[in-house]
Each structure stands twice: as C-alpha cells, then as structure tokens.
C-alpha cells in the first residue's frame, strides 16, 4: 500500500483568487474550483419571440433590433415591436411583379415588356420578321405556361390560404424555369412576394389571434376566387388561342395583383392583431413580475383587518378638521421648500391610524382641482398579522401599489429587473425598488404630473422595534437622493429614537397629537360620540362621557363598544349602562398607582364583568381571562377552557361576552383590540384598585399563571383518555413512509387541538425559576421523560413539528439548570432526550414515524438508565448489536455537495452554517439536518462562515477575495466587502454585530463596519498569510494566526499591536511555534487564547501576557480548527487526521476523541450551551456530536494500519494478525477481544502464524527479521537474523522445530526454532519470494516468487525438486494440501491454480477474481481452497471441480491474507481496511437474509434495510456503521461492525405489538 502523501500540495492545489507564488500551506487551504463551474454560461439557449417568428435585420425607421429587456421571471425576450418581422420582410408595393415582366404601376406602358413593339421609326422587314417571331415565341411560352399552370392549380386546394398563395407563387417561378421564360425581372419580383408570404406563413404557423380569425377566412375566399379566375382564363386561352397575348398577360397580372393585395391586407390585420396580443402578453408578464414583490394585501388601508367586522374607519365628519387640513396642505405643496416627510405622532389610542386612513382615502378618491397630489401607495403596520409587522414587506408593497398608479415608474421598475431585492434589507430595497426606478423614470414623466403621497402608519408596530431603523433608512435615502415627486406621511408613537430622527423636521412637517389643544380634542371626541351614539347625545351623562375621554380616542372607541354589546340593545338600556358606568368612582389601591384615562375605563369594564362574581367562579373566570392573554399563540375558547384546570367552554365564552369591549373572536381565535389591555392586566398597580371602598384584585401574576399552564400542558399530555400514547397516528404498518399513507384524518382524530397546543408549547409556559417555586413542573418533566417523551416526539413528527423537539428539550434542560445545581441529573436526562430527538429527527428514519422505535430507539447506543428504561418497554424491536471499534456515532450526519471548509452554530443553537469548496454557503436546521438556505454569490471556494450573535446575519469569506454579509433568514446578500487583494481565509463578527474582522492571503487583517461595509482598519504586521482571526467577547481585541508561525493580539479600536507588558519592547507575538498557525480563538472571558498548528499541537495561551499555558498533544496531523466551549472549560479541535478531539482546558487532558469522518476535519465549533459539537470535513459531511464528556468508555484497541497476515491457532481459540502498524496482535476468536499485543518489530509486519501446538508465534517483517514469540506471555523468544531485505512470509514446520522464511532478497531460508540458527538457504528464485510453506510431513517446502514461478524444495537438503510453471505474473501465495499431494498458488495474474505436488502438473485453474490473488489456503480435508484478493473478496472453491462455492463480501479494501481454522468451519481474513474478519466456512446456500426475517433483504441508499422486492422498509441503520455481511460472524475492526437480529421483533403490520405498556 502506498504511503499517504507527505505533501499536502496534492490534496489542495492552488486556485484562482490572487496572490503570488503560494507556499505549500496555501495550497493546503485553497481548493480549486472546477473548470466547468468557472465556464461562462452560454447565452445560446435564450430564445426570443422575435427570432421565433422570423425577425430580420432592422430597416430604416424600424426598431426590429431593439428588444425590450428580458422579463425577470423567465428567459423569453419579448420583442418591443411585434410587427418588425413583417415590415422588414414586406417589399414595397412597386416591386409586386407583372406576371409577364411588367411591374406594378406600368400597366399602360410596355417599356419593360419582353414583347414591347418599337414606337419610333419605320419598321424594317427584318424588324417585322423579328416581331412576328417574338409574338410567336411569346404565344408558345404563354401556351406552355398556361398548360402547366392548369395542371397544377388543382393541387393547391388546402385549408391554409397562405400555403395556397405561396404554392401558386412557387409554381409560377418553377414554370418560368421550365418554359424558359426567365428573361425579365419576374424572378426577383416573385421571390420578393414569396418572402412576404413566407413571413405570413411563419406567423400563422405560430398562432392566429382571435381578432384575425375572420380575416383568415376572407383571405381564404379571396385566394379560392383568384384560383378560379386563373383556371378560367387559362382554359379560355388554350381553347381560343387568343392572339392578343398582351391582353392575356394583363389579366394574369391583374389576378396576381389581387392576390398580392389580399395578402397585404391580411398581413396588416395579422400584424395589428399580433401586436395587440403581444402587448397583452407583455402586460401580463409585467404583472407577473410585479407579483414577485409579494405585496401585503392586509397592509392596504382598504383591506379589512383579519376579515373582522370591525374595519378601519375614516375620521367622523367634523372631527380632526385642522389636523387633516394641515396634512392636506402639506401634501399638496409642490414647492421645493416643502418637507418631503410629515411625521404624525401621538400616544397609543390617540387616533393616528384613523387620521392616516382618512388622508389615504381623500387622496385616492377625492381628486379635484384644489388637490394636486395623488395617493401612490400606503402601508398600515399592525401586530395583528406577521406580514403587516415585517419591515421588509413595506417597500415591496409600496413599489407594487405605485407601479399600478404610475406607468413610467412601472416600466423603469420592470426594466431594472431587481425584484429579488424583495428579500434584501430595507436600505437595499429602498435603492433598488424605489429610488433607482423613480429616478430612471423621471425623463419619461411629464413635468405636470402630480406628486405621489406615500402613507405609512404605525412604525412602532413593526416587529422587533425596527420602526426607527426603517425611518432612518427612509430619511437617509431622501437626503442622499433627489426624490422629487414623493411626499411621505408616517405615523408612530412618541418613540425617543424616532423623535431624535425627526428633530431636523420643520415644525410644519410634524404633528404631535398630544400637543393638540385639549378643547379641540374634546370637541372632536364629542362629535365622534354623537355620531356613534346619537340617541344618547341629549342625555346629561353624554357630556360627562366626553369629558372623561380627555381627548383620547381609544377611550371613546372602547366606551362605544362597551355600550353596544348587542345590536339589539335599546336606548334605555344604553342610558342605564352609561349612568351606572359614570356613577362609579374608584380609589387607587396604592399610592404608586399611576392611573390613566384608559385604565379607568378598563377598570370599569373589569368590574362590570367580574364584580358580581366571587369564590371559585370568579377565580375560574379570571384564570380563563389570563389564559387568553398568556397563550403562546392566539387560541380558541375551547382550548383555553381545557387548559384551565377547572374551566369549561361555556365559562370561556361567557368571559368573551362580558369583555366584548376589549376582546373579540375571529376564525375561532381570540384577540384583543389594543395592546394596552394585556399591559393593564399584567401590571399589578393598574389592575388592582378600589371602587366605592371595595378592593378589586384583577391583576395576573404572569409567572404563576405560566406555571399553572405548564402543569396543565403536562396534565393534558398525560391524560389516559386523550393524551400522548403509543402509535398516535394509528399507523397500520412500519414498512411504509408517512408520505405514502393518508394520515391527516387519523392524526386530527387522535390529536386534539388542546393536545396539539400542549405538545407544541409546553416549554413556553416554563416561568423564570427565580420568580416562583417550580417543584411541580420539575416533577412533571421528570415523569414525562420516563416514556411519554417518546410518544411526544412521535406526535411532533406526525404534526410536522419535528424540528421543534430538540430546541424545546434543550430549552427545558437549561431551565432546569437555572433552578439549581441539585437538578443537574434531571438536566442531563433532558439533554439525552434532546440528543435522541436529534438522532431521530435528523435521520431518514423520521420519514416513517414507527421507526422512532423500530430504527432510532433500536440503534440508540447510549447505555444510560434513561435509555434502558425506554428499551425495557420496547422489547420487541429489532436487536441491534454494534461492536463499536473506534468510530463514534454522531447524533446527525448531513451530506453536502462538496468538502466543508467551515461550520458554526447560530447563537440559539437552532441552525448551522457551513461553507464549502463548491462556492456555496448553506444554512441547515440543527435538529433535522434539513437545508434551509443556500447563499449564492461567491465565485470561488468559501473558506469561512459564521453567524452574528443575534443570528440575523451570516458573514463569509472566499478565495474570490471577498467578504460577504447575508441575511440569515432570507439568504439574500446584504453587503460585499471589497478590499483584500487575495484569498480571504477567515472572517468573524464582533459580539455586538457592528464589526467584522477578516484575515487574508494578502497578509493583512482588516476590520469592517458590518452595516455599511466600510473598511475601518487595516492591521499590518504579519509577514505571511493570515489564516485565522477572531474578536474577544468584549470586542476590544483581535487575535490572528498566520503562516508566519505567529499568533498576534491587536487593539480592535486603534489597530495597534499590543505590546508585551513585561518588556514593553516588542509586539505581542505568541512565540513557540515552528510551524504555521492555522486556527485561533479567544475564551469567552477573554483571558485565554487557543491555537491550532501544522505541528499537530493545540496550545493554550494567556491572552494578556502571551505566556504558553498548555500544549495539548494527541493529533497525528495538522490541526485545522480550534474553539472554546462557552464556559471556557473545554476545547474542541479538528484535524487533518480525520478526528475531532475534546480537551480539558485546566488539565490539558484529552476527554474524548470523536472518530467517523473519512476526510480531513476542517472546522469545529461548540453550540452556545456546550451540549453539542458540529464538525465539517473534506468527506463532504457536516456532523453533529454529543458535546458532553461523561465517562470515557473503554475502547478496544485495533490495528491502526492495514492487516497483512492472519492465522488461526490449531485449537481454534485465537487469531494472530500482523499489520503495517508494526505490531503483532492476538485476539479471542469468539469475541474479538484483544488478548496480547506483541511489540518489537520496527517495520511493517508481513507474515504471522501459530506453531502447531499454539504455544508460539512466528512473524516476519519489513525490518528484515524473523521473530518468535511466546503466546501465553507475549515475550519475544528469538530474533532470527540473516535476510538482507524484507521478510515477506514465515511458517512453522508441522513439528514446530523449524521455521521457513521467504524474503525480498530472493531467498528461502530454514531456521532452527530452539537455537535460532539458520539451517539452510534455498537459492534459485530470480525475484522476491512472496510466500513459503512446509508440507504436512515437513519433508518439502513450496515457495512462490515475483519471478512467476512456484518451486518445490527438499526441506532436508535444500535441493530444488520442481519448478511449476504456468502463472503469467508474480506468485503471491502458495500452500500444500493436508496430505501434501497438492499445491495451491495464487498470483497477480488473477488466477488460483492447483498443482500435482509430485509431478508438477497443473490440475486446475480457478478463475473468478477480478484482480491480484494475494493469499490462498487449503481446508484441513483438502476439499476446498480459500483465496483472498485485491478485488476485496474472499472466495471458496471446490478443489475437485474448480467450481466457486461462495464469495464472501464485506471487506472494503484489498484482502491480504486468508486461512481456515483447523476444523475448516471458519475462515479468517485480513485486509487493507484494517480489519480481521471471521467467516462461516460452511458450504450451505448463502443465507441471503437477516436473522428472523423470512424474505431476502438489501441495504439501499440512506441505509435502509429493505426487502428484496424493494417495497418493505424494514429498518434504518446509521450510515457510519457497517452491517455484517452474510457468513461474516466476527469482525475485529476500528470501524466497528453491526448486526441486526429480527428474531422476536415485531415489524410491519405487527409493529403495534413492539411496545409493552
């Protein structure tokens, strides 16, 4: 086997990306992009409509070559002028030919006629004679012409008139050629007309617009009539032989002119029709493009909110008069001095939305001479809906509405084709969707075009308080660009950030509703109340209601709702309600009660609803109210009733009725009218009060109520009748995927709405541990884990919520830890449940819910008390046995499309970002492995990627010299940071997300503003490539690692290198490295730095002094990536040696080695809670591992190199193996447990075998020695020296007194075992001796050599007895049969041959191997031969017939050695795959089945075991494990091996019995 290349250049070669000649290190990191990927995409595939319908080169005055820009939704190019093809093809009318030579327009003259008669002078006799000859010739031509035409005309009866006309023209051309009448311009004219008809034909072939269908019928009739005229005229000519040839020619020409005229008329109609049709298509295409903006319909002022009966309303007539006039005047002011933005502000409930609604309606509907501005677009923000609270939906909606109002803007927007900006940040949307199209359309907008008003309401209701940021982007655009023609009206509460932004506004562009004179506000409210409650306007209480409203419209509006609970309420009842309401006074429950007008109203509403109730009834109804306000999502009354321990649906509905003024129901979900009401209930000082000397306590203790709801969720999930149980989907068979079974009806029937809510949201109701006692909840969780958690995962999978399982359990684990250190065991159990959830949901097993148990639980290898409890109740699932080896099973493996360069978790642990050599950045669901986004933009391999701390952005760096910032949720590129002049190897955000640091092959470290993309600093000092960079957690320092062998620390604000505090003389370069530094990172507290290097070490440094604290050794190749856990106690590292290792920071001890990757591990990271590790590798996988260390399991040691030789002991109890790892190892042949490791050889061990009594072992090695070992002690007994080159084969004589050896020195040597003395040296081979063996009586020796020969020697004299010739290449292995009558040999020529040992005659050639045969052996009864080959197979042959009895498959690389056990019942094999395998050597038919399963099976893609028919999915097994093949009864391998036993298991339709309650 060839050694692994020592140079990494071959692995990672130089790519494009800048820079001069690269060091081997750079070649290590820069993987090339493929030639195919870099090739430019051909444009030849773009098909335009114009080319499809026969477009020609442009002609003067025609825009045929000017095509409209490609529609963004497709590749079809629409020609701007659909008539172009016809215009360019149509000849001028003057070119329509005279049938016999004259052109149109010359009917009365004969200057150009072939038969024209001279008009000047007297004709001579010769001329007369010539004239007669000409006439005669003309009549002959005409006669032949007419005869031919008459024959062909009947052929032209066709349904397509264009084809008919075209056929006539073509025939005229053909006839002229036939009769020889081609002496004039007729051919040119006919061909031009032919071209016209061809253009029309192509058009008709595409389609005939409906508008032209009548015209095509007319055209057909015209052509038929002219054909008839042709036929009649020609027939008449032939019958009468008209002497007036000119008259005949004239009539023929007239017929042709009529055909041409009809064609021209038809063409014009077709052109106009197609132009109209194309225009319609074009408009439809533009509309389709606009739909890509995904406008929010709910944000339009005309839209009903949530389809409620309550609509947005305009101001009541007579109210808000001055405010409306001021805004109207501002909007109509077209002077340059008029502010572009008007800000309307006021407290909650002051009527801002109503005012904006009125303005929007006025400027859209009430257009008059006094109003010069039009409503261009509007967006009313609201928390009632996701789409109306997303800032990124505002500008796309505005662009969509504006495009329907302004054609010039719509055209510019369409031409720009930047609709993808819908997914970009607001600043980019502002530029691409509003500013640029508006500016580009300016030239085509008439100067007198009125301005457009853009109205945006309730910026304060934008999600995540992004209102100020949106306004900032808007103001920036207005200041930076000249947006003439726009006026912006925006409203919001009096947010300090918004107020600061609007400080520069002119006073006339700001209206603060709180500054409106109180008398004016009261007057407006009085008018509103008179409109809403006209019957009460004359009552004395009415004025008091207006006074109490205090100018606050929400008070008035809520009072109106309060007084109108039913449509049928009478005026008297309303009057009584109003009197009662006003007659009650209240006193604050405490002096700290900061009351408000709205609070007074809410108190009255609460009193009316609950004051007459007491005891359990009052408590129940309040709990129902609190639940309406506390649920994770807006829910129904029935769900709320079920969540309240003693609740019922009728009581819940009663609460809704009594609180109709503040709560309403829509689509069976309960909402509140205004956010101030929940605030009121949750604030004790506001909702605990006194009225008429009676105390009312209506406030909700939110943590306590959440705790109650949390317990309710567990109570519901635990319910015997309707809670979680096994087989929640009533699934009939485990063989099928969920997608192939109609489950929705069963799921909806078995999983009630309240169970669905409880399963989805129980963690939402885990209150802060520091605010309330949570003993009950912890008990609920502990009980939940015992078994019901499995049913919960099952339920979540059925509900399509599997991706929530892991995050919810991790949240619960963290919550328990916050309850106190004494609950760490419970937190650990929850963590294991979270890991198991990941293991299932991130695997293909999740496609079939029963395989949560059949596959995931069966293959879950954690030997914990919790796992044992689970499996104790699932005793009838398949038995999965895994001999672990040194390979760890990850929780999840995600297959990518290219080598993974970098990986990182998002801050909340729910996502993973990876970058790859395939130029992509991808985002994955950390629980399920599902790809969420692919970020495209880089043009070369992407070296690094990471999340911002809030998870909203991703930064990446590439060999294309760029750093890019992406929106993590949409995948849209936000910024490209340019400046580096070569490949950028590393990039990272600062913890606050405001800066980005990058390190490059250009030797620089650069710091960037993360929002603007501006370079802030360039840190110079490194003398070679900067490979890794990172910020300290406080953002004050930057650490960098370089191929100049140094680690440097920089001041992040100044860019200055920090100095050594002790000498103050040199920059802090953390010395100690003699090799390049590949990765660096700060600990979370900033006091330590970890680095990984090409010298295979991980080092820990003091970040303030630069002193090396620890050097962690263990990796056997360069360390590509290092990272601290968030608590700073552990370090994870990834290496070129394919391993991930976890270290204890304080001691430097290796805690865990995670093996499984089959390629270099390029990147590793901890999740923020330290519970998981993610790794990315050259093997194109991203793997998630359990990050907890626990107790390190005892790991069996295996060969670390290829296994070159194996042998059974004579008693069959042991196996000995020799390896390239220089060791000889002894194994228990039944269990695979290692018994001894014999150390001493200093080179590759080529051959090993036991003595016949099994007390000794002999080995031969590349170190030229033969060694004898004591089996019981492992002690080396003898070292036999003499060979001058590698010893390739050794064996004992049957009596154990001698050893024979074969060597690369071409010799065979015989040794005395007891003395170690060389007895004989057998010479004769002319090449290396690969194999030697004694006959059973030890009288003869056989050897096989590189010289293609097999030779037989006398063991006593050393004389060569025979040379067996036949092999055509080197002989790798030889052996005697047990009776010494036969010899078997295996060769590089792929054959196994059997020879007569006495005569040397070849008896059999056994063919079947497809590559070199490396080893052969006889069974003890000499009836069979076993062979091992480079083709990875072990084969068993019948010696007498030469028939192959079986092929044993399982090795994944060359089989180097095979041997039978002494009883011939087993075969042992050793391979380059580092494994030793034991096989059943029986000759029975191959058991093509797994134990317990009655049909044959196969292992297919995604590691599903399926029935051979391919329909039954029996079981999924992890891709990292190797399933034992048929006959393979034991595998001793570092890769491990798994077996599945289906005995006693219940699968398929019986799977429902696998669970024992």
From TrEMBL:
Polar residues compositional bias, start-end: 1-10, 69-87, 112-128
Transmembrane domains' residue ranges: none
Keyword Hydrolase tagged: no
Positions of region (Disordered): 1-129
Keyword field: Coiled coil, Repeat, WD repeat
PROSITE patterns linked to this entry: NACHT, WD_REPEATS_1, WD_REPEATS_2, WD_REPEATS_REGION
Organism: Piloderma croceum (strain F 1598)
Domain of life: Eukaryota
Compositionally skewed regions (Low complexity) per UniProt: 34-52
Coiled-coil ranges from the UniProt annotation: 183-236
Domain NACHT per the UniProt entry, residue ranges: 340-495
Name of the featured protein: NACHT domain-containing protein
WD repeat ranges per the UniProt record: 893-934, 935-976, 977-1018, 1019-1055, 1070-1111, 1112-1153, 1154-1195, 1196-1237, 1238-1279, 1280-1321, 1322-1363, 1364-1405, 1406-1447, 1448-1489
SMART domains to which the protein is assigned, alphabetical: PQQ, WD40
UniProt cross-references to Gene3D superfamilies, sorted A to Z: P-loop containing nucleotide triphosphate hydrolases (3.40.50.300), YVTN repeat-like/Quinoprotein amine dehydrogenase (2.130.10.10)
CDD domains xref list: MLKL_NTD (cd21037), WD40 (cd00200)
InterPro entries: MLKL-like_MCAfunc, NACHT_NTPase, NPHP3-like_N, P-loop_NTPase, PQQ_b-propeller_rpt, Quino_amine_DH_bsu, WD40/YVTN_repeat-like_dom_sf, WD40_PAC1
């Amino acid at each position: 086997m060839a050694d692994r290349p020592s140079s990494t250049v071959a692995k990672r070669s130089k790519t494009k990306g800048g820079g001069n000649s690269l060091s081997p290190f750079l070649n290590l990191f820069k993987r090339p992009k493929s030639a195919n990927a870099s090739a430019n995409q051909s444009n030849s595939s773009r098909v335009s409509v114009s080319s499809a319908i026969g477009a020609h080169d442009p002609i003067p005055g025609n825009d045929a070559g000017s095509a409209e820009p490609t529609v963004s939704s497709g590749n079809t190019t629409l020609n701007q002028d659909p008539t172009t093809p016809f215009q360019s093809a149509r000849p001028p009318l003057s070119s329509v030919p005279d049938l016999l030579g004259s052109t149109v327009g010359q009917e009365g003259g004969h200057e150009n006629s072939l038969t024209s008669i001279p008009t000047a002078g007297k004709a001579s006799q010769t001329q007369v004679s010539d004239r007669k000859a000409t006439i005669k010739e003309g009549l002959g031509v005409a006669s032949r012409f007419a005869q031919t035409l008459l024959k062909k005309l009947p052929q032209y009866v066709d349904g397509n008139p264009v084809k008919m006309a075209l056929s006539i023209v073509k025939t005229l051309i053909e006839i002229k050629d036939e009769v020889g009448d081609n002496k004039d311009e007729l051919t040119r004219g006919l061909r031009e007309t032919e071209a016209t008809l061809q253009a029309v034909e192509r058009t008709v072939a595409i389609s005939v617009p409906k508008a032209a269908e009548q015209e095509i019928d007319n055209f057909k009739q015209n052509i038929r009539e002219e054909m008839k005229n042709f036929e009649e005229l020609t027939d008449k000519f032939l019958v009468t032989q008209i002497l007036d040839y000119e008259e005949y020619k004239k009539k023929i020409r007239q017929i042709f002119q009529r055909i041409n005229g009809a064609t021209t008329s038809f063409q014009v109609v077709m052109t106009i029709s197609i132009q109209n049709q194309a225009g319609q298509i074009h408009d439809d295409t533009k509309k389709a493009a606009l739909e890509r903006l995904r406008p929010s319909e709910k944000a339009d002022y005309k839209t009903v909110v949530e389809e409620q009966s309550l609509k947005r309303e305009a101001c009541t007539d007579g109210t808000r008069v001055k405010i409306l006039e001021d805004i109207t005047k501002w909007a109509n002011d077209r002077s340059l001095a008029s502010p572009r933005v008007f800000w309307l502000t006021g407290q909650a409930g002051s009527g801002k939305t109503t005012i904006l609604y009125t303005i929007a309606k006025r400027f859209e509907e009430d257009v008059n001479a006094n109003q010069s501005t039009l409503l261009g677009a509007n967006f009313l923000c609201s928390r009632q809906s996701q789409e109306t609270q997303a800032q990124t939906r505002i500008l796309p909606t505005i662009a969509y509405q504006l495009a329907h109002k302004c054609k010039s803007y719509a055209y510019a927007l369409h031409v720009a084709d930047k609709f993808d900006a819908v997914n970009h940040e607001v600043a980019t949307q502002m530029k691409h969707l509003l500013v640029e199209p508006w500016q580009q359309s300016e030239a085509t907008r008439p100067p007198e075009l009125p301005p457009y008003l853009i109205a945006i309401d309730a910026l304060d209701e934008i999600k995540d308080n992004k209102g100020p940021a949106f306004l900032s982007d808007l103001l920036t655009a207005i200041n930076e660009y000249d947006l003439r023609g726009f006026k912006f009206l925006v409203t919001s509460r009096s947010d300090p950030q918004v107020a600061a932004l609007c400080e520069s506004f002119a006073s006339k562009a700001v209206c603060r509703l709180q500054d409106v004179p109180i008398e004016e506000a009261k007057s407006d409210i009085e008018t509103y109340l008179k409109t809403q409650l006209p019957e009460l306007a004359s009552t004395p209480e009415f004025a008091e209601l207006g006074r109490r409203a205090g100018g606050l419209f929400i008070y008035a509006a809520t009072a109106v709702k309060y007084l109108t609970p039913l449509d049928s309420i009478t005026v008297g009842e309303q009057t009584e309600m109003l009197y009662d309401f006003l007659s009650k006074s209240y006193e604050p429950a405490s002096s700290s009660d900061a009351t408000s007008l709205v609070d007074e109203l809410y108190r009255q509403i609460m009193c009316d609803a609950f004051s007459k109730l007491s005891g359990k009834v009052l408590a129940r109804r309040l709990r129902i109210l609190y639940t309406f306000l506390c649920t994770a999502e807006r829910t129904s009354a029935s769900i709320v009733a079920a969540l309240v321990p003693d609740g019922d649906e009728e009581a819940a509905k009663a609460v809704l009725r009594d609180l109709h003024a503040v709560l309403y129901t829509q689509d069976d979900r309960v909402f509140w009218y205004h956010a101030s009401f929940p605030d009121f209930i949750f604030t004790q000082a506001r909702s605990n009060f006194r009225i008429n000397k009676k105390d009312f306590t209506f406030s909700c203790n939110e943590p306590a109520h959440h705790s109650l709801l949390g317990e309710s969720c567990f109570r519901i999930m635990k319910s015997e009748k309707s809670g979680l149980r096994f087989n929640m989907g009533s699934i009939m068979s485990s063989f099928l995927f969920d997608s192939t079974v109609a489950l929705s009806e069963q799921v909806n029937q078995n999983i009630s709405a309240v169970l669905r809510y409880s399963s989805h949201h129980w963690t939402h109701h885990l209150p802060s541990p520091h605010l309330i006692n949570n003993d009950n909840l912890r008990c609920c969780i502990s009980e939940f884990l015992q078994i019901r958690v499995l049913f919960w995962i099952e339920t979540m999978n059925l509900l399509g919520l599997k991706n929530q399982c892991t995050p919810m359990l991790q949240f619960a684990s963290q919550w328990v830890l916050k309850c106190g250190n004494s609950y760490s065991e419970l937190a650990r159990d929850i963590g294991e449940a979270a890991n198991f959830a990941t293991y299932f949901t991130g695997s293909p097993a999740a496609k079939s819910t029963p395989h949560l148990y059949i596959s995931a639980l069966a293959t879950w290898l954690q030997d914990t008390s919790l796992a044992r409890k689970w499996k104790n109740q699932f005793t009838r699932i398949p038995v999965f046995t895994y001999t672990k080896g040194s390979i760890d099973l990850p929780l999840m493996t995600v297959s990518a499309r290219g080598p993974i360069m970098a990986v990182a978790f998002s801050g909340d642990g729910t996502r993973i970002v990876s970058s790859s050599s395939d130029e992509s950045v991808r985002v994955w669901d950390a629980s399920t492995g599902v790809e969420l986004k692919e970020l495209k933009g880089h043009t070369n391999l992407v070296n690094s990627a990471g999340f911002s701390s809030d998870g909203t952005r991703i930064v990446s760096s590439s060999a294309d010299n760029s750093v890019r910032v992406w929106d993590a949720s949409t995948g849209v590129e936000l910024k490209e940071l340019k400046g580096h002049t070569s490949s950028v190897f590393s990039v990272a955000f600062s913890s606050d997300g405001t800066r980005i640091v990058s390190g490059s092959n250009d030797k620089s470290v650069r710091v960037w503003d993360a929002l603007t993309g501006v370079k802030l600093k360039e840190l110079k000092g490194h003398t070679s490539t900067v490979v890794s960079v990172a910020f300290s957690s406080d953002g004050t320092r930057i650490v960098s690692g370089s191929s100049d062998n140094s680690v440097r620390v920089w001041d992040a604000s100044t860019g200055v290198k920090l100095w050594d505090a002790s000498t103050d003389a040199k920059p802090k370069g953390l010395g100690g490295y003699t090799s390049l530094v590949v990765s660096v990172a700060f600990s979370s507290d900033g006091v330590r730095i970890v680095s990984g290097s090409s010298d295979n070490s991980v080092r820990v440094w003091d970040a303030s002094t630069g002193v090396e604290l620890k050097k962690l050794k263990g990796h056997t190749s360069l360390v590509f990536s290092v990272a601290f856990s968030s608590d700073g106690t552990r370090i994870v590292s990834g290496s070129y040696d394919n391993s991930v290792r976890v270290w204890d920071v304080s001691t430097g001890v290796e805690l865990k080695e995670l093996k499984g990757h089959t390629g270099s591990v390029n990147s590793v990271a901890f999740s923020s809670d330290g519970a998981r590790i993610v790794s990315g590798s050259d093997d194109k996988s991203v793997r998630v591992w359990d990050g907890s260390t626990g107790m390190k399991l005892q790991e069996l040691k295996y060969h670390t190199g290829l296994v070159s030789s194996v042998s059974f002991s004579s008693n069959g109890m042991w196996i000995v193996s020799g390896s390239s790892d220089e060791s000889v190892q002894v194994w228990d042949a039944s269990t695979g447990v290692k018994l001894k490791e014999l150390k001493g050889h200093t080179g590759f061990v080529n051959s090993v075998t036991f003595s016949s009594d099994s007390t000794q072992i002999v080995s031969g090695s590349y170190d030229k020695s033969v060694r004898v070992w004591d089996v019981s002690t492992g002690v080396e007994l003898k070292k036999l020296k003499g060979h001058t080159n590698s010893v390739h084969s050794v064996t004992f004589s049957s009596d154990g007194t001698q050893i024979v050896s074969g060597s690369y020195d071409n010799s065979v040597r015989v040794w005395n075992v007891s003395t170690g003395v060389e007895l004989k040296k057998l010479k004769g081979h002319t090449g290396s001796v690969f194999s030697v063996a004694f006959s059973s009586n030890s009288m003869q020796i056989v050897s096989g050599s590189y010289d293609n020969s097999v030779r037989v020697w006398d063991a006593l004299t050393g004389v060569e007895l025979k040379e067996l010739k036949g092999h055509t290449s080197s002989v790798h292995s030889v052996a005697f049969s047990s009776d010494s009558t036969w010899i078997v040999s295996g060769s590089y020529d792929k054959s196994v041959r059997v020879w007569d040992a006495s005569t040397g005659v070849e008896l059999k050639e056994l063919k079947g191997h497809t590559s070199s045969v490396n080893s052969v052996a006889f069974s003890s009864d000499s009836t069979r031969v076993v062979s091992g080959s480079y083709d990875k197979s072990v084969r068993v042959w019948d010696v007498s017939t030469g028939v192959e009895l079986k092929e044993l498959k399982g090795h994944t690389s060359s089989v180097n050695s095979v041997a039978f056990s002494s009883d011939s019942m087993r075969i042992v094999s050793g391979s380059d795959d580092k494994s030793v395998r034991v096989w059943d050597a029986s000759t029975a038919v191959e058991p093509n089945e797994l134990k317990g399963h009655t049909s044959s099976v196969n292992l297919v893609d995604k590691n599903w075991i399926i029935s051979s028919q391919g329909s039954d999915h029996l079981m999924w097994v992890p891709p990292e494990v190797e399933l034992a093949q048929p006959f393979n009864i034991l595998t001793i391998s570092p890769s491990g091996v798994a077996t599945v036993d289906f005995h006693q298991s219940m699968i398929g339709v019986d799977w429902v019995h696998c669970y024992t309650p």
